[in-house]
Amino acid sequence: MAKRNALGKGLGALIPGAADISISESHPSHSDQSHRQIVEIPLDEIEPNPHQPRADFDPKAVSELAQSIREKGILQPVAVRRFGAGYQLIAGERRFRAARQAECAVIPAIVMEVGTDQEMMELSLIENIQRENLNPIEEAKAYRMLIDECFLTQDEVAQRVGKDRSTIANTLRLLALAPEVLDALQAGQISAGHARTLLGLDNADQQIALCQQIIAQGISVRRTEALVKALKTDANQKKSTSRKDPNLLSLEEDLQRYFGTSVNINRRGAKGKIEIEFYSNDDLNRVLELLRNEGY
């Protein structure tokens, strides 16, 4: 399907200058759409947007907007398309909900000519991404829908929403997290920085366990990065150990008992190295004393 360039620029590009917008109390005409009007549409003739990327609307924020609407009216129109005998919301669902809560009979709206359901979905998703404060998971799901349902590439999504392709790719990667971690991110219990760091763990159980630790202990993103690195290092060491010669493993155990610390023997052919860990200056001096006693 040919894409309209205006879709990538939000409703501002689809509405001519403010001086050209007029207000009418009657229903919009099917004729001249080049001169767009703000029209008053009964709320009960508008159905919600089925492609709304926001999963949760803050009840307090909606109530505050409803109170503002009671006092000052609706300052910004919603966008709708004709749908069946009525209309379907394209953008402005928070205003739509607040208007219903304020018991408004009508709402100012701009009626847009949208030819297909696919075009409607694309316009709606892009508009919400640009104008709404979506959480990272809602944003990632919106990008995924644009790719899967509207057949856009990551480059095309980036162009339409005005962001770098790397931003789109990194946001989409969040959807690979364990479901429990996604829930924590969507609930605001961890940040997007925490979530991106947890992507470094391939094991879902480890992701969940560390996520719970982050929430319980209030661990910073930087500390989370260190913990993920430690878990990955430990996993790599275990893989390496599982492939070691049993004789080397036995020797490592003897040395660990003697030095009272972790000892790792890496051998390549006839050569190799022995690594003895220490955890403080005092620990280092203790290890050195043991080596001196053995005449090393």
In DSSP terms (H or I, runs of 4 or more residues), the helix count works out at 13
The beta-strand count equals 8
End-to-end Cα distance, whole Å, is: 76 Å
Largest sheet, spatial ordering of strands? 1-2-6-4-5-3
Largest sheet: 6 strands, mixed
Low-confidence stretches: 1-35
The SSE string, one letter per element, is HEEEHEEHEHHHHHHHHHEEH
Task: Summarize the structure in words.
This protein has about 300 residues and is of the alpha/beta class. It folds into 3 domains: about 5-130, Conserved hypothetical protein from pyrococcus furiosus pfu- 392566-001, ParB domain (Alpha-Beta Complex); about 190-235, no CATH class; about 245-295, no CATH class. The chain has helices spanning about 10-15, 60-70, 95-100, 115-130, 135-150, 155-160, 165-175, 180-185, 190-200, 205-215, 220-240, 245-260, 280-295, and strands at about 20-25, 35-40, 45, 80-85, 85-90, 105-110, 265-270, 270-275. Strands 1-2-6-4-5-3 form a 6-stranded mixed β-sheet. Strands 7-8 form a two-stranded antiparallel sheet. A hairpin with a 2-residue loop joins strand 7 and strand 8.
Descriptive keywords:
296 residues; alpha/beta; Conserved hypothetical protein from pyrococcus furiosus pfu- 392566-001, ParB domain; 3 domains; two-stranded antiparallel sheet; 13 helices; 8 strands; elongated; disordered N terminus
Walk me through the topology:
Elements: H1 11-14, E1 22-24, E2 37-42, E3 46-47, H2 59-72, E4 78-83, E5 86-91, H3 93-101, E6 106-112, H4 117-131, H5 136-148, H6 154-161, H7 165-173, H8 179-186, H9 192-198, H10 204-217, H11 221-242, H12 246-259, E7 263-268, E8 271-276, H13 281-293
Helix pairs in contact: 2-3, 4-5, 5-7, 6-7, 9-11
